[in-house]
């Protein structure tokens, strides 16, 4: 039998899609596309503006020299770059293990009595304004235990901000590790701690690194808590017990100054900050990928 | 004593599949039956839910015992009680007695980690460790237990167990690639190799072929038959043909109106399938329910 040519009208009425619904679908898809576009445009605009405004400040000196007093030409933000890297390293070294440990506790020992309170505490801390954390660390460490503005106080303030970010992101990642893998390892006769170390964490590795990158990126841009702790420093210093400079602090100081030259430097420092965060994130991801393959 | 066993066992070559034995029909019939696994008044619960009721059962050494029954009859739960995997589920507990060889599984002084160490387990869904290579998957059991093996010994152990799982020829050229790239059937055989690598005397299989196509299923069944020459196997299956093909003994379980899974009938597989004594068994194997 020959195949007859089919026409649209051959579709029975009850299976046809109403014109109204087709239009509705078009509108919905357009709106979704528009929302995506707004997000992308915002990102590109911000990045582009920072690049355009900051580029004139960028030269070799900007990376290798310390800030000069107003009136002198040149100078750079080298102490701030070093300080930001130092603060990120120290705060990460404190916050990432603590955050991962908290996530392991909440996910792997969820039957325990303390899992829910730990989770609740992480949620509360992540809701605290960062300036409040700064004030707390200022009162407790800067005026108290350490006795002066210091890189250590700054790193601890950043670590307090990072712990809940790491903990909550890693928690989600650990939940994604299939229970069947934990069971397989347990059935092989592995004790629980070994299941977590040898199977759960390696499986969640990429996600844990993403969580760490997120936390570092978020905290590296913090200004308010550093104003009250690391303070800022015009001189190169990696001494954790003294004031340490940081890129957001440099941006802030330059931006609120009345000098045009410093405004350009503020843009330059912003650009460097974005680049430093980007490079750190990229490096961590590359390291993560290499170890997997 | 148990720890001494596991550290010395893998070093002795296990090439027990000599041709002389297959010629003589596989299983030496003359040996008196030895109990490999004893279950007495076993009850299992999930929180307040009673899942398995009063199961008493003996499993002979070197036999394949199939547990059949409809969904929700507690057969997987029963299996998981045998190596104390049941209690891994939050809120789950079990009472009664289980003996594996001379080990009282539920005695207060018995460490569940050591029990699981003596018993191999294969799950319904193949679950190779995705971040490990094929080689590392087989080596996972010894490594997770902290066996100290030199490189050549580990190489030997991996090869031997991949051969036992009839997977060696298919993967010998890509031992250091991810196990996740294998087909479903190969993944399941990799899991079997992984379970065998620690030389368990008993292997528990929870519907090991239910997610596989008929050819992969056939390979798994073939493997179960071969392995049963050296290892005691308890296999849970939905598939009655499978039970009749691979097992010497069959256990039929059923959940009553109270939804507690109970043992209805057990016996030699041929008898269960040809002359079931209980009418519920007959109804199930003839497909009238379940």
Summarize the structure.
Chain A is mainly α and 293 residues long.
Describe the structure in your own words:
The complex is a heterodimer of chains A (293) and B (290). Chain A has 293 residues and is mainly alpha-helical. Chain A has a domain at 79-245: Orthogonal Bundle (MetI-like fold), CATH 1.10.3720. Chain A has 11 helices and no strands. The longest helix of chain A is centred in the first third of the chain and has 36 residues, at 19-54. By secondary structure, chain B is of the alpha/beta class. Helix content of chain B is 36%, strand content 24%. Chain B has 12 helices and 10 strands. Chain B has a 10-stranded mixed sheet, with helices on both faces. The longest helix of chain B has 14 residues, at 151-164. At the A-B interface, helix 7 and helix 8 of A face helix 4, strand 6, helix 5 and helix 8 of B.
Q: What are the salient characteristics of this protein?
A:
A: 293 residues, MetI-like fold, 11 helices, B: alpha/beta, globular
Q: What's the CATH superfamily of the domain at 79-245 in chain A, by name?
A: MetI-like
CATH topology of the domain at 79-245 in chain A: MetI-like fold
Give the radius of gyration of chain B: 19 Å
CATH homologous superfamily of the domain at 2-26 and 61-69 and 112-250 and 266-285 in chain B?
P-loop containing nucleotide triphosphate hydrolases
The protein's oligomeric status is: heterodimer
Q: Distance N terminus to C terminus of chain A?
A: 57 Å
Categorize the overall geometry of chain A: globular
Overall average pLDDT of chain A: 90
Question: Going across the major beta sheet of chain B, what is the strand order?
Answer: 5-4-1-2-10-9-3-8-7-6
Distinct helical segment count of chain B: 12
What is the fold-level CATH name, i.e. the topology of the domain at 2-26 and 61-69 and 112-250 and 266-285 in chain B? Answer: Rossmann fold
What is the overall silhouette of chain B?
A: globular
Compute the number of strand runs of chain A.
Answer: 0
| Proportion of helical residues of chain A | over 70%
Q: Could you describe the largest sheet of chain A, including whether it forms a barrel?
A: none
């Amino acid at each position: 039998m020959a195949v007859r040519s089919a026409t649209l009208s051959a579709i029975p009425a009850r299976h046809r899609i109403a014109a109204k619904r087709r239009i509705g679908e078009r509108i919905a898809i357009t709106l979704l596309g528009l929302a995506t576009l707004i997000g992308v445009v915002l990102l590109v605009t911000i990045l582009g503006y920072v690049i355009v405004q900051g580029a004139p400040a960028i030269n070799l000196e900007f990376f290798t020299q310390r800030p000069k007093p107003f009136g002198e030409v040149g100078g750079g933000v080298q102490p701030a770059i070093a300080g930001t890297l130092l603060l990120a390293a120290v705060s990460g070294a404190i916050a990432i293990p603590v955050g991962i440990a908290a996530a392991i506790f909440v996910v792997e020992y969820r039957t325990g009595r303390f899992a829910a309170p730990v989770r609740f505490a992480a949620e509360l801390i992540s809701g605290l304004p960062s300036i409040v954390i700064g004030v707390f660390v200022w009162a407790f460490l800067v005026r108290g235990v350490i006795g002066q503005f210091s890189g250590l106080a700054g790193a601890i303030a950043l670590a307090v901000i990072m712990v809940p970010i790491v903990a909550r992101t890693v928690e989600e990642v650990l939940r994604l590790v299939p229970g069947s893998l934990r069971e397989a390892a347990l059935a092989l006769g592995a004790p629980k701690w070994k299941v977590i170390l040898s199977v759960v964490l390696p499986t969640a590795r990429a996600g844990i690194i993403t969580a760490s990158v997120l936390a570092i990126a978020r905290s590296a841009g913090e200004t308010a808590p550093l104003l009250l702790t690391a303070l800022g420093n015009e001189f190169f210093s990696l001494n954790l017990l003294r004031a340490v400079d940081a890129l957001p602090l440099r941006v802030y100081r330059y931006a609120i100054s009345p000098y045009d030259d410093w405004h350009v430097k503020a843009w330059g420092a912003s650009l460097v900050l974005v680049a430093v965060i980007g490079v750190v994130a990229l490096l961590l991801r590359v390291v993560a990928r290499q170890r997997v393959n | 004593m148990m720890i001494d066993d596991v550290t010395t066992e893998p070093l002795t070559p296990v090439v027990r599949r000599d041709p002389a034995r297959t010629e003589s029909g596989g299983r030496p019939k003359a040996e008196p039956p030895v109990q490999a696994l004893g279950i007495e008044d076993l009850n299992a619960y999930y929180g307040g839910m009673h899942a398995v009721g009063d199961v008493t059962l003996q499993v002979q050494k070197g036999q394949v015992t199939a547990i059949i029954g409809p969904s929700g009859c507690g057969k997987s739960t029963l299996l998981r009680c045998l190596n104390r995997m049941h209690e891994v589920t939050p809120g789950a507990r079990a009472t009664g007695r289980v003996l594996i060889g001379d080990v009282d599984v539920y005695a207060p002084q018995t460490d569940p980690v050591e029990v699981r160490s003596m018993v191999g387990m294969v799950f319904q869904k193949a679950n190779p460790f995705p971040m490990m290579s094929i080689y590392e998957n087989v080596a996972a059991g010894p490594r997770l237990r902290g066996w100290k093996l030199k490189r050549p010994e580990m190489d030997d152990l991996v090869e031997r167990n991949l051969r036992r799982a009839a997977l060696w020829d298919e993967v010998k050229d890509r031992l250091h690639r991810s196990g996740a790239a294998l087909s479903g059937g190969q993944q399941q055989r990799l899991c079997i190799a992984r379970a065998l690598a620690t030389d368990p005397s008993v292997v528990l299989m929870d519907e090991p072929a239910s997610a596989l196509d008929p050819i992969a299923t056939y390979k798994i069944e073939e493997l179960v038959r071969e392995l049963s020459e050296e290892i005691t196997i308890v296999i849970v299956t939905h598939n009655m043909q499978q039970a009749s093909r691979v097992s010497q003994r069959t256990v039929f379980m059923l959940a009553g109106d109270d939804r507690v899974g109970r043992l209805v009938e057990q016996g030699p597989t041929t008898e269960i399938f040809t002359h079931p004594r209980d009418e519920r068994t007959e109804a199930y194997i003839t497909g009238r329910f379940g």
